[in-house]
Write a structure and sequence with these properties.
The protein is α+β, with helices and mostly antiparallel strands. The chain has eleven helices and eleven strands. Strands 1, 2, 3, 4, 5, 6 and 7 form a seven-stranded mixed beta sheet that branches. The longest helix is centred in the first third of the chain and has 18 residues, at about 25-40. The protein is globular and about 60 Å long.
Length: about 290
């Protein structure tokens, strides 16, 4: 039984959460630009099109956990360009297929920036779109993919579509209840801003807490997918936002995975992908700094 104080806090947190949402116009603008980029990459008779590209979104906009930018930060939109190419192919060559396609169009060429695993299109003052080249993981299957990594120089495992489905399953009963209350019959996209479950709101609030806490230390801020995964694992389909947030915060420490004795946050749909891989980099860097020569 939720007491009156819990309900009042839940109402307050929901109001705060609504303020974190991007505006409907920003959402629609991002959606249109996403479709424009996807259509451009898939245009017939191009170097990318010959590999039968499968283009789909991933990340916070798809999950419905995007938050309004804090200060000068821009929200991000993530797009996967999965091409039917063998894993024996050179990862950098595959990545360049997408980059070269963008360079063929002046408007995209001007805003294009190479990143470690993806290509970034910078829509200045609004958002940036990270386009991730990928190929199917022929061994694991089940929506698993392999993505390039410039630093590691080898294919890395992932599964963004499987992850989005898993995230949706973590709040399926509550989401159905909210849809029924709004008298909506047809299924609506997970990222649609008209429906926000206590899990989605909790993730938004935790991400904003992260943004504020690490405002002057962005390098050490936990990435969004770590927050999202731990929160989703700790969520127990609470209907009240305040109760959900409190239980998530209390439950997060017990949701950590372990790899070789080190804390990890594994993709539930592809456990070869460790979302917290940077934690090991920090540990290694610390050891290098403190280890004395023999």
């Amino acid at each position: 039984m939720i007491n009156k104080a819990y309900k009042q806090m839940g109402v307050i947190l929901n109001i705060i959460g609504e303020e974190l949402d991007i505006s409907p116009s920003s959402y629609e603008d991002a959606r249109k630009k996403y479709h424009a980029v996807a259509e451009y990459l898939a245009e017939p008779d191009t170097t990318v099109a010959q590999y039968d590209p499968n283009l789909y979104s991933q990340g916070s906009l798809r999950l419905g956990t995007v938050v309004k930018p804090l200060g000068s930060n821009e929200f991000d939109l993530d797009l996967v360009c999965e091409m039917n190419i063998s894993s024996t192919s050179d990862q950098q060559v595959v990545k360049e297929l997408v980059g070269n396609r963008f360079k063929e169009k002046e408007i995209y060429k001007k805003m294009l920036k190479p990143k470690n695993r993806c290509w970034r299109l910078d829509y200045a003052g609004a958002f940036h779109m990270d386009v991730l080249p990928a190929i199917p993981d022929g061994i694991k299957g089940n929506d698993c993919i392999l993505v390039p990594d410039r630093k590691l120089c080898e294919w890395q495992p992932s599964n963004p579509r499987g992850y989005a489905n898993w995230f949706k399953e973590r709040m399926l009963s509550i989401r159905r209840s909210l849809i029924e209350k709004k008298a909506i019959i047809e299924e609506i996209p997970l990222g649609d801003p008209s429906i926000r479950t206590p899990l989605q709101r909790s993730v938004q609030l935790l991400k904003r807490h992260r943004d504020i806490l690490f405002q002057d230390d962005a390098e050490n801020a936990p990435i969004s997918v770590v927050i999202t995964t731990l929160a989703a694992k700790a969520y127990n389909n609470e209907e009240d936002l305040y109760e959900a947030l409190i239980n998530i915060i209390r439950g997060i420490p017990s949701q950590l995975d372990s790899v070789d004795g080190w804390p990890a946050v594994l993709n539930p749909m592809n456990r070869e992908e460790n979302f917290a891989e940077k934690w090991m980099e920090f540990v290694t860097a610390g050891l290098k700094c403190t280890t004395k020569p023999v």
